[in-house]
Write a structure and sequence with these properties.
The structure holds 2 protein chains of 2 kinds. Chain A is 73% helix and 0% strand. Chain A is built from 8 helices and no strands. In chain A, helix 3 (39-56) packs across helix 4 (66-89) and helix 7 (140-147) packs across helix 8. Chain B has a domain at 84-95 and 111-278: 3-Layer(aba) Sandwich (Protein Transport Mog1p, Chain A). Chain B has a 7-stranded antiparallel sheet with strand order 4-5-6-10-9-8-7, with helices on both faces. In chain B, strands 1-2-3-11 form a 4-stranded mixed sheet. The chains are: A mainly alpha, B alpha+beta.
């Protein structure tokens, strides 16, 4: 990350901020999508995060932690999006995907479908930690600093996210293979 | 899938799927909105309210106990064994006192002088010398062998101080550095407003989560508690500690980075005396 650009943006340079946006928007969107599991919500979260970051960047004191700071803003934008639409997304169900022709592919798709279903049942704060850890690759200490939470809380959220996934996945019926027999 | 590691592995593969490029229209819409959006540089006003500090009073009592405990631990631990560490001065020190020499200890044998102690260890050493800021309205104690560079400029409203800023009193040792500065609250600005405007370090949580800490005769807040200060120039990386306190119409900021611990930072803060009346930039009317 070009710290000079960050400093320029902090001082109100819109062009510098635009360049920063072009550098980080793809990765931010990818994270937002993986937390929210919805392209529309992820787009809204990204937009809100970008605008909020522009407003608040004058108060950024540690320029070298720009990306962590941006992640924090994004995650909170995801929380906001989630709250905004909670009432009508509460019962969203993942529709079955047309099955592939081979058993292995069928199993893989079924697993993904189960993962999707299980992940959607997790609270947003657990999803955020899970994504930052397993997708972005941040260690728990850094996630804690990024989100402004104690390290123990980050660890706990990751643990419960994994536990939540496991519980749902263990409860699932085994996928039905062609011919109607249980695998 | 009944094993956590298997679940995590599968989940990682699953997370890799999905979009990785932000839709152009979403980015463009955000940039258009930014064109007409002003940055948040508010520097609010009215009467300094002690509300935040009243709510922090209970925490301050706990923090005071921690300071005493930390100070006690630092006083008893041998510096040669533990490496860096800052301990409170064992006795009151007169401002501007020279580097200490060997003095008789309780056993009648000379104690190792703080100067000698710090010379033999890489850490900050013992807090023995008093620094009185010529501009910023405070004094504190620091290791006698540190170099001192007083501030030559005021900390302007809205300004974000970086290491080396002329608005900072800088006290630097071989393994750590300490900076202090202050500024008057703007006319009508509240303590909460000031803190909100100050906030937003990437390693700090929301203001409400900052730990309260005694600083001189007031209660301050630690907004950075051991963040990694890898970007700090001049080789003083390591954990970064930052605290703020509002007292007598002024906002004070103290920060340390280098080879030191949370307890070291508390020990330094415990030596601070706030004297806003002596600051050269008068409080706002």
């Amino acid at each position: 990350m070009d710290l000079a650009l960050v400093e320029q943006a902090r001082r109100g340079d819109r062009d510098a901020f635009t360049m920063l946006v072009n550098q980080v928007s793809d990765s931010l969107y990818a994270v937002a999508y993986r937390i929210l599991r919805d392209t529309g919500l992820a787009e809204d979260a990204l937009q809100n995060a970008l605008v909020l970051a522009w407003r608040r960047i004058p108060h950024l004191r540690e320029l070298d932690r720009f990306e962590a700071w941006f992640h924090r803003i994004l995650v909170h934008a995801c929380y906001d999006e989630s709250r905004r639409v909670r009432q009508w997304t509460a019962n969203v169900r993942v529709l079955p995907v047309d099955g592939p022709s081979t058993p292995d592919a069928s199993r893989a798709l079924a697993d993904r479908d189960e993962l999707e279903r299980a992940f959607r049942k997790l609270p947003m704060d657990q999803r955020a930690v899970f994504v930052l850890h397993h997708y972005v690759g941040l260690p728990l200490v850094e996630i804690a600093e990024t989100l402004g939470i104690p390290a123990g809380t980050a660890r706990s959220r990751l643990h419960y996210a994994t536990l939540g996934l496991r519980m749902v996945l263990e409860d699932k019926p085994e996928p039905i293979r062609k011919g109607g027999r249980s695998a | 899938m009944n094993d956590d590691r298997l679940i995590e592995r599968e989940a990682r593969l699953w997370l890799e799927e999905g979009p990785t490029q932000a839709p152009e229209h979403a980015v463009r819409a955000a940039l258009q909105q930014i064109e007409t959006t002003r940055q948040d540089r508010r520097w609010p006003v009215p009467v300094v309210t002690p509300r935040l500090f009243q709510t922090a009073r209970a925490g301050a009592a706990i923090a005071a106990v921690l300071v005493v405990a930390a100070g006690g631990l630092l006083l008893v631990r041998p510096s040669l064994e533990t490496g860096p560490g800052i301990s409170p001065s064992p006795s009151p020190v007169t401002s501007g006192s020279p580097a200490p020499s060997a003095t008789p200890g309780a056993s009648g044998t000379p104690e190792v002088s703080p100067a000698a102690s710090s010379a033999s260890t890489p850490g900050p050493g013992v807090l023995i010398t008093t620094f009185t800021s010529p501009m910023n309205g405070y004094s504190l104690q620091y290791p006698g062998d540190w170099t001192v560079t007083p501030a030559t400029a005021s900390w302007a409203p809205q300004a974000v101080n970086q290491w080396g800023s002329p608005a900072l009193d800088e006290l630097k040792g071989s393994s750590a550095r300490l900076v202090g500065t202050s500024q008057p609250l703007a006319a009508g600005q509240t303590a909460d407003d000031w803190l909100l405007a100050y906030g937003d370090g990437a390693c700090s949580g929301p203001v409400a989560t900052w730990q309260s800490v005694p600083i001189g005769n007031a209660t301050g807040l630690i907004d950075a508690d051991g963040c990694v200060a890898s970007g700090v120039p001049s080789g003083k990386g390591g954990p970064l500690f930052d605290a703020v306190v509002i007292y007598g119409g002024r906002a004070y900021n103290f920060a340390m980075a280098g080879e030191l611990s949370h307890a070291d930072f508390l020990a330094v803060l415990a030596t601070v005396t706030l004297d806003p009346a002596s600051a050269t930039t008068p409080p706002a009317p």
